[in-house]
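Notes from the 1:1 (GR / supervisor)

We went over the backlog. Supervisor wanted to see one worked example end to end before approving the batch request, so GR pasted a single chain during the call. The sequence is below; no edits were made to it. Supervisor asked that the structure be written out right there so they could see what the output format looks like.
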Amino acid sequence: MKEQSTNSLPQWNVTRISSSLGIEYPIIQGPLGGLSTQRLTATVSNFGGLGSFGAHGLNPSAIKDVIAEIRMLTSKPFAINLWVSMEDEGARTSGSEEFARSLASLAGHIQALGGMLPTFTPYVPVKFEDQVRVLLDAKVPVFSFIYGVPPKEILDECRAQGILTIGTATTPDEAVVLEQAGVDVVAASGFESGGHRGSFLRPSEESLTGTFSLVPQVVDSVSIPVVAAGGIADARGVVAAFALGAEGVQIGTAFLACEESGASPLHRNAILSGNARRTGLTRGFTGRLARGVHNQLLEELNRPGTEILPYPLQRILVKNLTVVAEKAVKPEFLQLWAGQSANLSRQNDAKTLLQTLISGVSTVAESVHKNFEQSSR
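Structure output shown during the call:
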């Protein structure tokens, strides 16, 4: 039997995802929540990947401005990411007493760093429907989302306008629900990933499946293309994701370490310095389960008995500490979002990171192929 040459290996970057998006490489930059920038989004898209901007914390007019600015920087496809579920139960009824109990665990640190203690103000919600209206009117190329499934009329309008939709699943069951709703692509998000766990069928604590286990189960459960997310930071992770059946990858923390991101120098240094070896899950940062570098803030907020407000009230409260901690150069009191593979991050420039990934994938894939050939002889 004639041996297959490594030169005849299929092109890894030609998938349903790259074809449907019109991009050269099926590499998606994670939306990075409030640490997105138009510059990073455009840099990734201009290179041939899919840049993303996490806009869930912005009001509709700000989202409109962001889209316009991105379009000034790139003519390539990009994604805007929103959260379908914008608040947790109790956010609208939580009052001054709950606020005071949650503030108690932070007050000493805020004052020690020279900050003023915040006072209670009623919660003013931002509607997902108002945010997504901006995306539809602007006809963004890609609409990605977490924490649920948008209403049918929104997905129908996306389809009518040619807007590709990417939903996030943390379990195979969630992936099936997304496909049944008519979502175009599912991002299978393993619990290694930094930032928030976007679970929506069961509590996040009951939906903690690793990427290596999650991706092939999702691939077997749906017919739509699957993007692997969580713990992917270098070419080895990309090749592994494709071996598991994914047709694209989403990378967050490695892009967060790049100077084009909105992460502070303290945050980027924590990722690139080797100090992100230990990460942990907490509801203390925002009220929703999320992963960040294990530091004093995370440890204290995870202590039994610590009062945590519903999302987004806890996020708003903790910001009173992180703002003064940033000025005081105290990373131990910052929300240092990072995934479990943070210590694999090596680049502080987004274009260099992409170049390294692209060249590395070919090298790793060729090595795997050669090893397989040798073992099969």
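Supervisor's comment: Confidence is low (pLDDT under 50) at residues 1-9.
Batch request approved.
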